[in-house]
User: Fold these one by one.
Assistant:
Number 1:
Amino acid sequence: MGVTNKLGEMGVVTLRLEEAVNWARTNAMWPMLFGLACCAIEMMSTQASNYDMSRFGMELMRPSPRQSDLMIVAGRVSRKMAPVLRRLYDQMPDPKWVLSMGDCASCGGVFNNYAIVQGVDEIVPVDVYVAGCPPRPEQLMHGIITLHERIKQNRLADWA
Amino acid sequence: MNLIRGFATTIKHVFEEPVTIQFPEEERPVRERFKGRHALKRYDNGLEKCIGCSLCAAACPADAIWVEAAENSDEARYSPGERYARTYEINMIRCIFCGYCEDACPTEAIVLEHEYRLSFNDRVDAVYTKDMLIDPVPPGGQDTPQVTEPGKFTRSIPEMKDPD
Amino acid sequence: MTDTVTITIDGQDFEVPKGMNLVDAAKLHGIGIPVFCYHPKLDPVGMCRMCLVELGNVAIDRTTGAPELDEQGNPVIRWFPKLQTACTQTVSQGMVLRTTSDMVVEGRENILEFLLTSHPLDCPVCDKGGECPLQNLTMAYGPGESRFIYDDKIRLAKHVPLGKLIYLDRERCIQCARCTRFCDEIVGDDVLAFHERGRRLQIVTISDPPFDTKFSGNTTDICPVGALTTTDFRFGARPWELTEVSTICPYCPVGCNLNASTRMDREFGGKAMIKRIMPRQNERVNEIWICDKGRFGHHHSRHEERLLAPLMRNKSGELVEVEWPAVYKAIAKQLKAHGDQAGFVGDSTLSNEDLWELRRLAELSGGSPRLGLWPATMSGGDVVAQVGVGSETRLQDLGPGSVILVMASDFEEEAPIWWLQVKQAADRGAKVVVANARPTKLDRYASAVIHYRYDEAVGVLNSFTAPLLSGDGQLGQGNGWGALQSDLQNAEVTHADTANLLASAENLVIFLGSEGLTLEQHAELMQAAANLLIVSGHVGRPNNGLIPVWPGANVQGAWDMGFSAEATADLLANPPALWVIGGADVAGEDIRMATALEQAEFVVVTAQFMTPTAAHADIVLPRQSFAERAGTYTNGLRRVQRFYPAQGPIGDALPDWKIFAHVSAQMGGPRPPVAAGTIFRDIAQRVERYIGMDYTRLAWFEPQFPDVGGDDLYYGGTAYSNYGGLGLQWPAEAEAEQPQFSVRPVRTAAPQTDGLTLVPVWVLFDRGHLFEKSELMHHRMPQPYAAFNPDDAARLGLTDGDRVTLAVEGHELTVTAQVGDDNPAGAVLLPRRLSGDATLSTPAACTVQKIESMQKVEG
């Protein structure tokens, strides 16, 4: 880690650029609302006052892909939905992340059949998989923290 | 009048204690019967309860469990009886935490516990192997494989009497 | 009198064949009567009492002998006062059964409650759990609770090895005696028995070595509980996790239908792997039995010594790994240079598709293709095509009136399942004639045994034919009848009784091996057998004709694809510059081949392992085992049978046909076919005998009786139903509408020279390069030995256990001598594929030198 110092009383903080950028990215991450099934209910709950995702800078769910950084795929993705999901992902501005919430999004879960995409990583690159059927709000938040940890590992060289 | 009543409700809530739980610093306790991450149990002497019968895998609606069995001997004993699980894997992102495996287990070897922090950066990390699932050896017990005296642990299933 | 009777089961009338027992009769119409001890292939004993039914017969008026009628004019039914065992009762006209009445239900419940008094609750760890008749029947008919006291359960040994292949769990045994009866009735080996009585009744093995039979695995199939399980499958998987793949045994000419149960395995890289081999029912081939070689001989398919990549000799003469395209180019270059002097050898484990592509490659190479077959011990593919057994021959149909001649073959070692079927035919009343130079195990079931000197084989058959040649003959002119007649008119009739027996037989089947015969002698023997069959009229119909005991699984297919043993002999006599050898370990089995390969300019070998042959090669190509690919084998009854890929591929190994096709493409041939089925379509268009066959037709199946492997495992055991195809048999020429027969005189071989002849003989559990990889069978493989007649041994000063050196054609081999009365004089019997060293595949003169034990004399 770089040198991070708080200089006296002056309220000045010095740190490396990549850390500043990572900090900014993690703490103002706007998730895209992509509720597909039961997991979406838990996702809503995570957003509501009991768990309050705003504490992580996720102020509100954006249904618009052009204004969001994080796609939370909450629920099973049918083959019919897959192109839509990919299109929305493509419309999101970089940098962007995908969190696969729950079993169905992660690997098809119990729906091992022709209609369901067996893992959303078949169509978009997934950064974090969250187990659970559906995951508790805490589990989703743990997933988001895992994602934050991952983003904090980003290096300037990887940005390109 | 209605307007005032509405704002009164709002103002009342402003002075209330916030309901937000400060996860991860603060955690809401889970219920006793909450089903989280699995654990493979041991007997007091350290032998594994799991006998590798694959009934959990058969009961699993999501095909999340993979068991490969092998044979015990008195020189290298993992569990009572003839059979033990050589490979025991649970894919956490396939598991739906329904607890059917717990119900199916004839030796009460697999138990769903309360851990729920299960997020992974990679699909492969989500496959929990036997080493990760099995409980630590209880005090006074011995790690497996054990050398045991012949003829002592001949039965896989613990003796269970009919209820009176 | 008709052949059927009408019986009433649960109020419904059914027509059933006469003489059938009630369990079979009900089963025929889809009504299941639960059984434990009864098995459709065994005689009923009525031990388990599970098949209890209410039974009534038509009352007969004793004065008139006519059925009594009631007021409505219906026959009066007289019910047995107690429940009857259905398996021991045969059907009779008007019989009435109740299989679902309260009395029957209660009877079954009580029987199960008794059976379960001491049965352990082992189902989770039991290999049978999931396909267990006791489990299934308890769920279906058992009582929910037991009234017996748990503490009174009897405790017995749970882990008793019966030999090294089968484990016995004494607690699980329900004393149905299926295993002991299988050994006694079906096999005739006295190896299992009951010990003690009552509740203490136990299965014990009474042979030394324990459970000494070649068919021990079958007892685990018919065991209705998990008392008998194989060490091979022990805890390999649960039955419901297995994927079933149909396959064919690659070892002997019987062509047993097998079922490979596969499952993905962590130790096999997550690929599907064969967990066990089980029989697949084919009443025309192996019924529901297989021998232990087929059952436990699958380990070569994933042995760690498997070749994984193509190997080519570099400049310094070492075999190094190369890429496939490079070897294709190198082989094509060599074939272009030496094409007209190339020799091609196909192994008996190669499928028809492999052999066909090898032939195509040979044709592309220029010159007249020299297509040799390995093992080259038997001649006469053309004779089989002429007088082979009729289509739809079923060995289990042979009974009273049939005669089976088994000649020049140690039958149990060469074709165990045929041996089993012939033995059962003898039990049913068929007459078995065994002719060989030495006693074999089949002799004890034979009506006549003829022992001859090895070189007299043809004479024995001629002496059977000679008495039949009186008169003009029915065959018309120009068929050699006259020539044969004049040739044999002075033949000595040495076995008149047997000759009569053969001539008067309703059905005659001849099994012909090649023990002690050179290739030329065997060709004569085949023709002599054809003469006998044609002259006595036993050809062209089912259950009549010739069955060659070929020395491998697909020898018949190799003949059909144009390969011949004569060509192999010719290749040896005039060795080619370039050898292309498919699959065979020629150098490991015949010293003459090894010498020929050493002198060759270039040798290409496809092999699964680094065999002695592969060690001679300039290019070694890794071939896939039968388990990894699709193909067809043609068995000794000329039945073309299909097998399917069961196991995940290993390394870069490819099926032989693909290798040969790629080389052909390099030589300017057509693009390689994509699948074995495409090649078979090609075969079906170009090979006359296979016209009309294709993979779809080979996969046909029909319901077979008895219905084994259906939902009711209790009835036939855990052998599998056949859903992979029963195969198609191509008709012999004798079955044509107007067959053209020709006989010709065969000379009796020249008298034996003095001195000893080395005679290669078969042992089932050999150390062939494939079977040797099944390590769990090593204890059944005998140590290398040479067997001597006592007189010869005395002359040479040998005693049992002496070390001797056999010198054959400039090659020396050291083995242990065995002296036994059964061994024929003038011959040294040397089991094939038993020693690590090469021997000979056909007989040859040899000299014997005793090795004096080296004793140091000091001081």
Number 2:
Amino acid sequence: MDDVSIDWRRMTRRGLLRQAGMAGLAGLASPAWAQTMASLPLPGGPDERPITGAFPQKGAMILQRTRPPLLETPFAVYDKGVFTPNDRFFVRWHWAVIPTRIDAGKFRLKVRGHVERELSLPLKEVLALPRVEIAAVNQCSGNSRGFFQPRVAGGEWGNGAMGNARWTGVKLKDVLDRAGVKAGAVQVRFNGLDEPVVPQGPDFMKSLAVDHARDGEVMIAYAMNGKQLPLLNGFPLRLVVPGWYATYWIKMLNDIEVLDSPDTNFWMKTAYTIPDNRRADMKPGEAGVKMVPINRMNPRSFITNLASGATIPAGKPHSVRGIAFGGDAGVKRVEFSADGGKSWHTARLGRDEGKYGFRRWNAHFSPRQKGGYTLMCRCTNTNGEAQPSEPNWNPAGFMRNVVEATTVTAA
Amino acid sequence: MNRNMLQLVTLAGAALIAATAAAKVPARLASVAVTLPESTRALPDGPGVATVRNNCLGCHSAGMILNQPALAKAAWQVEVNKMRNVYKAPVDEKAVPAIVDYLTAVKGPK
């Protein structure tokens, strides 16, 4: 198979240094995964999942499903840093026909449809376009689905169907400009190399409005955290849609079609739709709810250095830390509560690596008395949108972003 | 040291940093060939298990079923219908009741 050169000298010094740091971090991933189980824990169960190291280019992952692969990031990984190592990054595929061999020399990215010139770009031509880099959270629409009550069918994720990476690639706009989008274009549709198992099954494809596709932020990534993408995360090319759910981040992207009428394919019109309100909220069994395609993410935050059920010494100061992200905006503020949300204190924010990425936060917690404590964190994004105190519900289990509670005992 | 020499030293320094970092990132997109693991989970025995095995496990492994929460029979009926009508699973209509009954027995409310 032929490989394709990347001119890494064009990277900025700052970018290279960051990547060097990331490579070091990835090296810390523990190989001690053999024969262990993870408990998520999900209301009503089942909440035991094997920890697997059997997947190529991946370290220890929570096995949600072998085929097509659904692999969840063990939550402790998020405590190690704001960038999720490639080999611990969650994996989600819809159909089981996934190419397991990709020849970098023969791969082509097609651009076609409502354009002046159809393109069939070898990787070296994609890589020759001006390079861009962005830190952005990639989160499954159904991240945390397993916490929905009443429970809903689907991939029964805990909170680990998300990750933050520094994506390197080219602007989608630059690729579209090379093809020349014709007047009257309304959407751009993206397809990858994966295929349905059954011939009549709907091929997985997603579309963005043409203005969104050309906003200069949506990109085609060929590296994450300074390395080529693991095959299961979309090698060789993956669409990156900062601030939007991962369903749009088409993996193994090889086909871009400019449309002159709205995309009515199953994965846009029927699947991945949400109640038409900011929280994707409705009542179980509610009828006549207007549904729209899922789109931008909402803010979330988590405590990463303490898990529910932990016992910590009373009468001593503790540092509580975690991660937050603003969704389609930056993190404006994270607040911490040690009394189940009765009182809130502003947490200290870590370095800003980019508005679409994870942001580290820290707070102090000194349990004076022995007993139980309910710890909470709440992110407000730069649009002024805060995490709600009540969970949302919808039948697909999308867009959970309630303030999460971590219950600990001081003893 | 004249200006040219200074530039040379600076360039050498930058090159050193680049070379050090580049050693930790690939210099190219390398072709990839991998093998994906097979599922090792089996469906528990029970009436209809062979029908479920034959009709459902072509598209997804058993873990997808076994990790689901307890769902009532009506909810399992919805899921099986979705697999047939939306995802075009080639499941004979006559096989549907046995599949729904098995799923309700194994993954229904207890």
Number 3:
Amino acid sequence: MRVNRGCSEGNCLSERTTWLLRAILGLALIAAWEAFGAFTGGTWTSKPSLIAVRLVQWAQRDLAWHVATTLQEIVVGLAIGVPLGIALGIVLGRAPITAKILRPLILTLNSIPVVALAPLLIMWFGLGLQPKIVLVALASFLLLFFNTFAGAQAVDRDMISALELMGASARERFQKAVLPGCTTWIMGGLRNALPYALIGATVGEMMLARNGLGYLISNAAGQFDMAGIYAALVVLMILGIIVNELANRLEGWLLRWRPVAAPAWSNM
Amino acid sequence: MTRNVIELEHVSKEFDARGVKVLALDTIDLAVAPEEFVALVGPSGCGKSTVLNLVAGLLPPTSGAVRYDGAPVQGANRRVGYMTQKDTLLPWRTVEDNIGIALELKCRAVPARERRERVQAMMDFVGLTGFARHYPGELSGGMRKRAALARMLIYEPETFLLDEPFGALDAQLKLIMHQELLRMTRARRLTVVFVTHDLAEAITLADRVAVFTARPGKIRAVRQIPFGRERDAVHLRFLPEFGALHEELWDELKDEVGKGTET
């Protein structure tokens, strides 16, 4: 039965009070930051008011374009890396002999910190979008591959046998048991790949680029523009929250059959 | 009655459990005639379930021959319906989609509408009405068993291999299922191999009861149960013949049960 996550007696806050307290806490933090900035001159910490001004300035100029660039790298990269990773993971996961031969290669690949490839990729693919797309694609490919690979090996044999006895063809056994049996694992891969895609694209842009949110950070840093650095970080944070929320939604839908409730964090 | 549907001839099965060879079945001979209901009774771990796995073709015998309808069983035997002890419901499918899965397969390809009707009828039959949209993880053990049973019944295989199918059910529902299973064996002329540790259940249902020894599993005794297919599962147990058979078979079984718990 579904776990009821309602609050127990005497341990209850209404939804409205909770949000009110959260808003007060948030405003207090911002006020404290502002006060600290005003008191010290804000050389290193900037001030929320300055950051807000910078954001408005950017928004009137080319912020949307930078955001679009970063998003484009993420979306295209994921669109390449995710399906390839899932496909190869399932193929190798269901081919134990080949997988055994390739094991050392797979382990080696798994130990590569993908963002460290950014300089190399920039040399290969130049200044445009390509090196970041390749970076995102590579990272998401590897993450999805390893998860799907593990999942395909873990599919319950008895379930597959049961379908086989019913007369299911190899293709039907794959569609009805193997592939859905991997979804938990694929989702685990996506959970990691989505934030990693954001990291990959930003790091790539910070190294060498003429646009994107990573470029905004490195450019602001180059000019010692503290408010600019923080403003770019704020935008990245918002993107991160959106990406995370998308992953939550996707997980809730893909794994709706799972009786165990999601961790309490996703309830907020 | 011409030839046997299921034949096991000098069948032994050895498992390799972490380097230790374990003999699960020791030269078993068993033949099941068409439309016969055979119950296998024995202490747990005696290899009863292994017999079903061999007949289903999910395991090859270490030695001896397993034949179905005269031909050696090689690979999955698609002419049997097999309800394993552990239910193999697909956790990501709702109860109704689990029960109807066999009808979705290309080899049957039942139209969606007819499939829905048959699934609905089957859910009413096993007492799962109202749980169509639930996932297996939301059901009790007994309900999962019933869903697994319904999933097998719905595509009407000619032979049933049942591994303690009613173990998790409450007594009343078990009686109803017994009656229905008897009715079904008559109506569809089914051949059944039924594994249970419940002697009374075996006598209630079967034409023949085989008592297994503790591991390594051998057949210790086989008794014909003379009640015919038209028997009444509810009242049968009050007949003096039932008591006598129970007594007789229990004498065979009780020593083995003791051995089973020691190992």
